[in-house]
Write a structure and sequence with these properties.
The chain has 4 helices and no strands. With 86 residues, the chain is mainly α. Helix 1 (2-19) crosses helix 4 (74-84). The two termini are 13 Å apart.
Length: 86
């Protein structure tokens, strides 16, 4: 199970690299640090994260609802993924 989480973390990290703002290394961001507050992404990138989660993990936010606070940190996003996995 730890390997699954590590794979999800790697996939999420790879995705975040594609939308991050220049000049901020994702490796410098803590797992519980706000991605927006630390300057890695801007608030509009949350929409891209939602689209990534819907496409990659089949999460239907229209059905489950969207809590932006849960998408604010890497650990929060991983928690959303893990709750959606069977």
């Amino acid at each position: 199970m730890a390997d699954d989480r590590q794979q999800r973390l790697q996939g999420l990290t790879d995705f975040l690299r594609t939308i991050q703002k220049p000049g901020k290394a994702i490796e410098s961001v803590g797992l519980d640090e706000s991605l927006v507050a630390c300057g890695l992404i801007d608030s509009l990138a949350i929409i891209e994260i939602v689209m990534f989660l819907e496409k990659s993990y089949g999460i239907d936010f229209a059905a489950t609802g969207l809590d932006p606070d849960r998408l604010a940190t890497i650990n929060g996003i991983l928690g959303v993924i893990e709750e959606a996995r069977p």
